[in-house]
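User: Sequence in, structure out. Go.
Assistant: Echoing your sequence, followed by the C-alpha cells.
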Amino acid sequence: MEFNKLLSTIINNNKLHARWLNTLSLMENTGARKISASEDPETVTYIILKHAAEEHRHAFYLKKQIEKIKSENCPTYANDYLIAHKSSKYYLNQLDVDVCRYLKKELGLKGKELRFAAYLLVTYAIEVRADELYPIYQDELEKASSNVNVKSIILEEEGHLEEMINQLKSFSPNWEFHANKAVEMESLLFIQWVDQLNNEIGELN
C-alpha cells in the first residue's frame, strides 16, 4: 500500500489513528531523549537545547491530539497503544547504531566526538524524513476533514533541518557525503517500518 493510502486508512479508523498519533509521539520522544543523551555537560549549545525542547514538545503535542479522536486514550507507550511497536521502538536506536558504526570505521571517531557527530547525522536524516512525512500526513488529514493537524510541527521541522545543515557545514567540509550515507541508512529502516505498518494495519483494519 502506498504511504498516502496507508495514512488515509489510518485516519479513517479512529482506533488506528489514535495509535498512530501515539506512535509518532513515541518516536519524537525517543528523538528528544537521544538528543539530550548526546549533550556534553559543558559545551552543549543553544541550538541543541532548543532542538531537544522542541522534540519533547512535539511528543506532547501529538499525544494531546489524540483527545480530538473518539477512541481509546493511549495513556502510555505500552505496545497495545502503538502500531508496529517493534519497528517503531527499534527505528531510531538502530539508526544510531548504524551511524556510530559508520563514523567509527570511516572517521575513527570515539567518545564525545562520536556522540556529537552521530547526533548531527542521525538528526539530519530524521529531519529529512520528517519534512516528507508530516506534510503528507497533513494533506491526508485535510482530505478527511479531521480535527487533528500537525502544521506547527511542519514549520518547526523545516527550521530544524536548516539548523542541522548549518551545524554539519561546521562539522566537516564533506558533510553532504556523510549526511547522504545517514539518509541511506534511514531509508532502509523506513521501508522496514512501513512494511510492518502495512502488515499490522492489514490485520487490525
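User: And one key feature?
Assistant: The two ends are 13 Å apart (CA to CA).
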